[in-house]
Amino acid sequence: MASSRAKTIRIGFLLTVLAGVLLFAWRDVSRRNARNEWRDPLSVGVVILDASGPVSALDPAAVATLHSGIGALGNRLSREYERYHTTTRSMIQTVPYGPVAVDAAPPQLEADDWWSLVKYTWDVQRYVWNVDSRAAVPSRGLDSRIYIVATPVRDAAAKWVEGASQQGGRFGFAVVELDESTVDLVLFVAAHELMHTLGASDKYTASGTLIPDGLGDPEQKPLFPQRYAEVMARNRVLGPGREVVPETLDELRVGRLTAREIGWLR
Ligand SMILES: [Zn+2]
Known about the structure:
Collagenase (Catalytic Domain); two-stranded antiparallel ribbon; 38% helix; globular
């Protein structure tokens, strides 16, 4: 008798927990989907992580330029929104946080199986909790968070940046080499990763930019050299088989296919 009552209580407790988890998941999915409806401005936290070692080796001037550039990024993306919609509101607001020191790069997905994915999700969540608490990033109110993991430039001839983001998720990471000359490229990659969190797909492959969807302006006449770089293609196409990384944020364009994927066009 007593054990059957204990069992009933235990099952009742587990059902309550399950209902709570399902409710949380449902609310999280509907809030993430709401980002693509663009009824309200999108609020994006961009967190600078200093991965240069126990003693920071980042150039303070480059960090300061990046910090102020993060605000400008929101303005640049809001102007792109206005190419598709008439509005008086700034629809993308980007808020800088950090820098905070980290002793490890963000976790990476090691394999495609179910268990690796669960482990990766947990590791990323722990990584993000840790840096958010140290950078005073609020746990509520931000629609997406992009983490810029910065080290100094090692080889001036081959400055590199790369990113990884949850497609349609909450977080994106840009792993970058930072100095004054790479700030705009770093912001461009941050925008690219942000677009991934909103559901945009890459517009390039190993053989280069996809044409026409990856062109900054597919209507441009003559078509080449392109004046703009599409955010999900990353590069500015000079001609067939020739492309360069963007130099300034002014070259950034959100093309029609990307605009459709993130809900700017229906
Ligand atoms: Zn990408």
